[in-house]
């Protein structure tokens, strides 16, 4: 911004100087005793007057062209700058979990990225709180590249006895952009208040399918008999059904006689390992 102000000021001074010179030249041309006055009738006098006018027009055009070129260069540099910001993002698989993301949205690489926050970024740790680890320096982030880490769980953070007053953070990211340009700075307001009262819908994705397959593999692993394959248990269904029917009849007779229960646990009739 300072450079742009300097260019505009310089251009204004130059235009003012040209206008002053043009006014002086025109005043001289209008004088009756001037060799180039507008009432001149000779070809040489009109040629001199035309030359002065041409010089004025050329000077104004040069100033305009110079100003436009300087503005175009400023815009090219601004568009080429990286744009690194910090923001909060819900985990795509578990929306109640929120991550801290540092991302370069620009078209060129950002270098020497540093991140600071006021207050310090912390997460719930039971009834206490712990600092969220942040790198002291990220060497480079290519266009559309990001760095992220788990911040906190909304279910644990809200109404937390320690973090109740730490829900609003001012995160400042500083980084180097295009060569010979000043250090770039971006500031973000990260507020957990935006998530209070939110209702999240969990969608089942390939991630959940992989988790289910992992559980199936664990259960089937318990069924193996050494390295020879699965262990198989068999039972006589009819015998079990008859035993269950007999046990139920016995229990009914005991209730009628109001006798204390004697025998096996009633729940044992449903155990699959007993024949």
Topology of this structure?
Elements: H1 2-30, H2 43-80, E1 84-90, E2 97-104, E3 110-118, E4 122-125, E5 128-131, E6 138-141, E7 146-153, H3 154-157, E8 168-176, E9 184-191, H4 206-222, H5 237-257
Antiparallel strand pairs: 1-2, 2-7, 3-6, 3-8, 4-5, 8-9
Report what the structure shows.
The chain folds into three domains: 2-80; 84-195, Immunoglobulin-like, CATH 2.60.40; 237-270, no CATH class. It has a four-stranded antiparallel sheet, with no helix packed on it. The chain contains five helices and nine strands; from the N terminus they run ααβββββββαββαα. Helix 1 (2-30) packs antiparallel against helix 2. The mean pLDDT is 78. By secondary structure, the chain is of the alpha+beta class. It is elongated.
């Amino acid at each position: 911004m300072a450079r742009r102000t300097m260019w505009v000021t310089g251009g204004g001074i130059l235009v003012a100087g040209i206008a002053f010179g043009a006014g002086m030249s025109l005043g001289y041309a209008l004088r009756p005793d001037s060799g180039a006055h507008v009432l001149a009738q000779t070809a040489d006098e009109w040629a001199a007057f035309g030359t002065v006018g041409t010089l004025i027009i050329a000077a104004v055009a040069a100033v305009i062209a110079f100003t436009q070129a300087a503005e175009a260069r400023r815009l090219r540099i601004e568009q080429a700058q990286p744009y690194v910001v910090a923001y909060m993002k819900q985990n795509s698989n578990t929306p109640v979990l929120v991550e801290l993301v540092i991302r370069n949205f620009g078209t060129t690489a950002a270098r020497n990225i540093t991140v600071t926050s006021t207050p310090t970024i912390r997460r719930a740790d039971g009834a206490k709180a712990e600092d969220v680890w942040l790198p002291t320096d990220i060497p480079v982030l290519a266009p559309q590249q990001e760095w992220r880490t788990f911040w906190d769980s909304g279910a644990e953070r809200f109404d937390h006895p320690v973090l109740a007053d730490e829900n609003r953070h001012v995160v400042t990211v500083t980084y180097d952009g295009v060569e010979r340009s000043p250090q770039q700075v971006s500031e973000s307001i990260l507020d957990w208040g935006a998530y209070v009262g939110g209702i999240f819908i969990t969608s089942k994705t390939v991630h959940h399918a992989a988790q289910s397959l992992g559980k199936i593999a664990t259960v089937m692993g318990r069924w193996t008999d050494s390295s020879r394959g699965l262990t198989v248990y068999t039972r006589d269904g009819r015998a079990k059904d008859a035993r269950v029917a007999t046990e139920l009849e016995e229990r009914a007779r005991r209730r009628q006689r109001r006798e204390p229960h004697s025998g096996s646990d009633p729940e044992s009739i449903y155990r699959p390992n007993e024949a």
